[in-house]
């Protein structure tokens, strides 16, 4: 059995007695054991990080960026290996696994611009003989806790800006798919990152709580489910740490009567069922406006959903989506589907009997489509995180907008229409962080920022883009006067510019 330890001080170290099983979701087999850190393991990583960080912070930002440049090359070199390891533990298809790596790599590329992003501001002659300037300095030892669904992208979204800014970073990845984060750490070492600047501490709540309580750790980034995001935000903040915590989602796609119905149906199928619906930006609720639109949309969706190909990543590019991550996730998705039926929704495409031939023990879930879902049903209020699309019929645009606005989550949303006025009104009024217009998954690119609103985000600064350089630095502002500007005698009232 493969044993996965921790990455500490530039090398893989064994864990202690506690471990978790890592499954191959396609076969249902346990393929590795991952170590679960104790608070002593975490403390060791922090001690190493704290010792290494000052030299890294003193390394000029261009040199730090060059390590990231080399890292990008190595990611390209090992792309197939990374994608295979990712698919084997997560279950997503190989092209989707490559996308996971590439969306992370793009943020690394953005962070190569650190020398520019870290430049401060300067005011010449802010007063008589006085200059004022600001600088962005690293926080010190920083940490991040990441979810299972993007084991390459989300760690890179955190550690690339953190280390580009001169911090040390401790990553606590998901215990479901820890191999890729360990591979990323090894590649950064190969790229020339000094030991101790990026470390991986595998684990569960014990490791997370040790991070939240450790006095040396200055900031915590979190991405995962909303209850844990809220918990981490509260505990990290109570301990005086800077925290940005991103939570779950229930993304609505509004389909207006004037939308191109084929385009809308294609978009819904990709965004609802890609990665088996295990994306925080998946569309899980379709909201057609008007009965006729709803009927036309359902008519287009049914054959598309029935034709979806489910399978293991090894089956090649023909597969649309793979298994869900664990047996427990599969059970929970089936439980929620049953609540939908019990509470009166119409199950238009029923994937409950889906069996993957030759992979009967895998965690496969067939595609499901519900119609006539209402606001009070569990399948509407809860994030299912599986291949289940719900349709809520709205009578008017205002009612559709209200649905997206009243939902407790506010990660992403989309509208499909040919009407510029409606699209503009929607983008302006909806209280959701990321909005797509005729585009179902509006994940901003690396140089913009990513973040939801409402219960999808706790904190203020978003991930990547310029916000990341703010989150991983603090501003120091210097007011300087040299002898020729100094007047004789003390000044006793607050200086103001007259
Ligand atoms: P999760 O909340 O179960 O786990 C996330 C991390 O928290 C893992 O590292 C895990 O070990 C840790 N954790 C779990 N339980 C904990 C506890 N009780 N105390 C302390 N730490 C704990 O999430 P997941 O199942 O890995 O990921 C799926 C969720 O992540 C979905 O809700 C999805 O919407 C969300 N997500 C959000 C975004 C975003 O940017 N908003 C992006 C990706 C995923």
Automatic annotation (TrEMBL):
Domain Aldehyde dehydrogenase: where?
17-478
Q: Does the keyword ATP-binding apply?
A: no
Enzyme Commission (EC) number: 1.2.1.27
Determine the domain of life of the protein's source. Answer: Bacteria
SUPFAM superfamilies with a match to the protein in the record: ALDH-like
Tell me which Pfam families the record gives.
Answer: Aldedh
Q: Does the keyword Membrane apply?
A: no
Q: Which UniProt keywords apply?
A: NAD, Oxidoreductase
Alphabetized PANTHER family for the sequence? MALONATE-SEMIALDEHYDE DEHYDROGENASE (PTHR43866:SF4)
Q: What is this protein called?
A: methylmalonate-semialdehyde dehydrogenase (CoA acylating)
């Amino acid at each position: 059995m493969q044993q996965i330890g921790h990455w500490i001080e530039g090398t893989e170290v064994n864990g202690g007695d506690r471990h978790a099983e890592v499954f191959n979701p396609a076969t249902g087999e346990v393929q590795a054991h991952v170590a679960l850190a104790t608070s002593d393991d975490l403390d060791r990583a922090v001690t190493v990080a704290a010792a290494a960080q000052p030299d890294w912070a003193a390394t000029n930002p261009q040199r730090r960026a060059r390590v990231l440049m080399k890292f990008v090359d190595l990611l390209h070199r090992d792309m197939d290996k990374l994608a295979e390891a990712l698919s084997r533990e997560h279950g997503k298809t190989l092209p989707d696994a490559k996308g996971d790596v590439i969306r992370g790599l793009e943020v690394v590329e953005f962070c190569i611009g650190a020398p520019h992003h870290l430049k401060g501001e300067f005011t010449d002659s802010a007063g008589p003989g006085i200059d004022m300037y600001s600088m962005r300095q690293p926080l010190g030892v920083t940490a991040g806790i990441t979810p299972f669904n993007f084991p390459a992208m989300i760690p890179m979204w955190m550690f690339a800006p953190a280390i580009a800014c001169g911090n040390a970073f401790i990553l606590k990845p998901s215990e479901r798919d820890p191999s890729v984060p360990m591979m990323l750490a090894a590649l950064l070492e190969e790229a020339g990152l000094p030991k101790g600047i990026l470390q991986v501490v595998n684990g569960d709540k014990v490791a997370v709580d040790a991070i939240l309580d450790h006095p040396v750790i200055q900031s915590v980034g979190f991405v995962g489910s909303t209850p844990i995001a809220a918990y981490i935000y509260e505990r990290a903040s109570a301990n005086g740490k800077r925290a940005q915590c991103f939570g779950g989602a229930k993304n609505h796609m509004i389909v207006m009567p004037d939308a191109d119905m084929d385009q809308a149906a294609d978009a819904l199928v990709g965004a609802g069922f890609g990665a088996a619906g295990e994306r925080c930006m998946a569309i899980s609720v379709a909201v057609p406006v008007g009965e006729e639109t709803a009927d036309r949309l359902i008519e287009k969706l049914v054959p598309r959903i029935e034709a979806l190909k489910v399978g293991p990543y090894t089956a090649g590019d023909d597969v649309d989506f793979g298994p869900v991550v664990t047996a427990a996730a599969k059970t929970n998705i089936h439980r929620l589907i049953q609540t939908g039926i019990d509470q009166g929704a119409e199950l238009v495409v029923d994937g409950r009997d889906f069996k993957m031939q030759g992979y009967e023990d895998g965690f496969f879930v067939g595609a499901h489509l519900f119609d006539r879902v209402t606001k009070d049903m569990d399948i509407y209020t809860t994030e299912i995180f599986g291949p289940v699309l719900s349709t809520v019929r709205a009578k008017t645009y205002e009612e559709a907008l209200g649905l997206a606005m009243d939902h407790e989550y506010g990660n992403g949303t989309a509208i499909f229409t040919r009407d510029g006025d409606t699209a503009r009104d929607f983008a302006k009024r909806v209280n959701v962080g990321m909005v797509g217009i005729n585009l179902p998954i509006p994940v901003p690119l690396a140089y913009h920022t990513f973040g939801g609103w409402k219960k999808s985000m706790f904190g203020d600064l978003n991930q990547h883009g310029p916000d990341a350089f703010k989150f991983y630095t603090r501003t120091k502002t210097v007011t300087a006067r040299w002898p020729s500007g100094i007047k004789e005698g003390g000044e006793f009232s607050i200086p103001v510019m007259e």
